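Bug: token stream looks shifted between consecutive jobs. Job 1:
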Amino acid sequence: MPPIKVKNGRGPGGRATGSIAVKPGEGRGRGRPLTRIQKEKQQVILEAALEVFSVYGFRGSTIDQIAEVAGMSKPNLLYYFPKKEDIHRRLIRTLLDNWLAPLRQIDEDGDPVPEIRSYIRRKIEMSRDYPRESRLFANEMLQGAPHIIDMIELDLKNLVNEKARVLSGWMDAGKIVRTDPYHLIFSIWATTQHYADFDVQVRAVLGRDRGGEGRFEDAAAYLEKLFMQGLIPRK
């Protein structure tokens, strides 16, 4: 397999990517606070693992690959994370929590049209800024979500139920067209995350003229119009 290089948390095209937060007490040293150096080491490992997992998936990745990308020895890496599963679990659980943040921000007391429009735009921005994380999450779903099935069946399900009730309330009030709120949420996920999960395909089809960073703004404008035309009640 060709080596992967990651510098300063930058993904394809040199775009800055988000970092995985290291929480006190996680990894080695559980039960006592991590030192600054330990946190930095864990951060380097998690960034390297994100790059490796997003390319090769969980099954195709190895501790040796992650250690090489992290620029440290395998024994040093294993001091912080004894198993590959530990690294992957940390990444995917943190990712799911971050991924749900835009959905949590939908305000029941807000105007539904701007709220939904903002949600679509935030999801597109996440596809632009966190493509590796999106692909890692997609790979986890394709494998049956073995590391986060409990979070999906509890945290994710409860949050979606909550926002589905918000959408239904707006529909009952005649503020947006009645439709299935769950499938509305699924549709927004599918159309926005496509631009990260199928980034290569999107850029190849659009070509040089339209395949640059502007494609995300074009996508946001298109999807906002698409969903708003179907949701704004006709007078």
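Job 2, same session, no restart:
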Amino acid sequence: MSISGGLPQQFNRAIDLSALAAKKTPPQDAISAGGSARRDVDENSLVKEIIPSSKQVPVILVVWSPRSEESQLLVQALEALHRKDNEATQRWSLAVLNADAQPAVAQALRVTTIPTVLAIIAEQVAPLFDSMIPPDQLEIVLNKVVELAAEQGVTGISNGVPNEQVIPEDPDLIIADQALEDNEFPAAITAFEKVLVRKPGDAEATQGLANAKLLLRTSLADPAAAQAAVLANPEDANAQALVADFEIFAGEADAALDRLIKFISSNQGAQREIARTHLLELFQNFAPTEPILIAARSALSKALF
């Protein structure tokens, strides 16, 4: 895996917050007794603390297993570098997640190899590498993460104080996020809409609103029934749209967008317009610069013209 060329897809609510189990999970045991250089995280602390903190400090997240000696060696190497790099200024923080204890979280992060190291910058996840690498190369990768974070406006914390003034989060965004966590999707929709009334075009609220609407739609439907409806009538745009919703929910964004683009390409009239409108709404679940969105917009233009 590589971080060259920028950061990949947004860690968005539609997939990562809803796909994780709603239950509260107990904290993991640390790999070693000592060492405050890192934070052992579970689902709750990852979502509530680690990801939000990445708006100020880039986070290096190691998904490990106690069954893997390579995992333990990698964590130890990262701890040593963390202590070295963060003596005066917190340039990056270190978090570790036990994949054996938190399989749903590992799956939501799309981890297939242990250990896997990811960077979280401004609530975006970027895969870094999935094997032990030499310490000198490890330091190069970490420096690149810090550089990428700075380009995103994430500049670290000096002496416990953010290097740049932190703008307080919009209270309605806080309400919306809590509503999403509580599976209160109509309340989340209302809160995001309030933000957009005050701040039209706000990127976070726009994406959050699309996520909340998708979660509401999928919570009111059955995926098996949705698939059956498509098989019974492939020319039903509403049925295709609902299956696309479930594909987004399951982390299969490529399949979802491709499904609707192909439908638009092969249909005309009202059914085509239903699919086009739904696809444009799904686009709002992604950050404007995400490669998947850029590719899908290009494919849609070809399908339409």
